[in-house]
Amino acid sequence: MVQDVDHGIALQMSAISKSFPGVKALDGVNLTVRKGEVHAIVGENGAGKSTLMKILAGFYHPDRGSIEVMGTPIGVMNPREARDLGIGMIYQELNLVPDLTVAENISLGAMPRRGPFVDYRSLAANAKAVLKELDADIDVGTRVGNLSLSQQQLVEIAKVVSRNPSIVVFDEPTSSLGDKETRILFNVIKRMRESGIAILYISHRLQEVMEIGDRVTVLRDGSNIETRDVAGITPDEMVRLMVGRDLTEMFPKLDLSIGDPVLSVTSLGRAHQFEDITLDVRAGEIVGLAGLVGSGRTEVARAIFGLDPAESGEIRVRGKAVRIRSPREGVSAGIALVPEDRKREGIVPDLPVRENFTLPLIGRITRFFLILAGRERATVQAFADRLNLNPPRIERPMGTFSGGNQQKVVLGKWLLAKPEVLILDEPTRGVDVGAKADIHRIIGEFAESGGAVLMISSELSELLAVCDRIFVLHEGSMVAEIPRQSATEESVMRAATGQVYA
């Protein structure tokens, strides 16, 4: 640990402006970050946070403004030059190569060599050393594509830490981490801060900002709103500054009439993932599926939808037994899945919003194999307006939208398909407070119309607020069914950690 850290200015971004066709992403933004501090940046999706950080990383060039790193003015730079300046980026959307090993990913772009050949012994040793520092128990020879999402996030962090950066940006780093991994990450960030590294921390989880941050800058609509010491602000004040209004109820829960079972799962099993899973979801009901990372929550959801079919057990939809061996059969049975990883499984980034919306229902907007363009545009535009898509431009490529708006489209395209059962795997992961409220409103409206919702979330506060019942998994087994009136964070965590629920 380094003592007497110099708390001088590490980064100065002044009057940064950036426009894209039809959108002004940043308008004169100023940001000052000191050495040895955690500077949080908060704002709604589309506020300009990621654009500002991509300018810092050299992926975008500002239209106007200046940047100084460690007191030195920086001109136009590319990502490699930014990295050479000691700027490290850890993105919410992972930048790993699935077919390479953990060790190869950690040293990607800076492979140790012995003559003309890669020094694989040094490669493995370097990876083991940095993973040990992160307290991450991951085999460095494992193919990254075989790791869980939380393990991949730790590899992403290790990749940056291994390069001894002076400024590190964490963009929603805990969005796919469990409690244990989050604690490890926070310990790493604290050690970085103590050694004088400047940390920029972007998160929609405001309690994390309160715990780990020293100062916080709020952005709204591409402009600075305020910079404050974290000790002098509350989460409620941050929300008001972010959205420009009070959000009196983040998780609105409608008092709905509960009907007959729509989805019934009995003794569902898949080798080495989960066994003997029995649950039901009724019309007008939102049922939670809770558990720690690795408990089998996502695997159960994927099996019900047909992505990774169950090997035993029975699934019924409105009392009728259905055979689901593929997503096509899942959709035919009236089941829709909003996946955990929207980038890889939920969207086609290069296609416009319009085409992303209509992928699951192409048969409804065609006649004699021709797409009815007018019907398609009118249908999608109406739904985009209902979802508060920002900006509501359905011809823009999906990849140019913020994460929260992408998630709205993933949810909206399945609602357009009019399913009986809606399975949501981390539906608000990496989503800002305003978009989160929109998504919960839409989920509530679907349940109100008689739909059945099965919802996975790592945020217990979210499950407790919106769910009528919560099923809890532990190591692939169903260990508890907790009614709304009895559900507390303590009771859910007790079951999730394998203790007896009472």
Automatic annotation (TrEMBL):
Kindly give the Gene3D superfamilies that the UniProt entry links to this protein. Answer: P-loop containing nucleotide triphosphate hydrolases (3.40.50.300)
Q: Where in the cell is it found?
A: Cell membrane
Xref: SUPFAM superfamilies: P-loop containing nucleoside triphosphate hydrolases (SSF52540)
What GO terms fall under cellular component here?
A: plasma membrane
UniProt keyword annotation of Cell membrane present: yes
Per the record, the coiled-coil ranges are none
Tell me its family: Belongs to the ABC transporter superfamily.
Under what name is this protein listed? Monosaccharide ABC transporter ATP-binding protein, CUT2 family
Species per Swiss-Prot/TrEMBL record: Bauldia litoralis
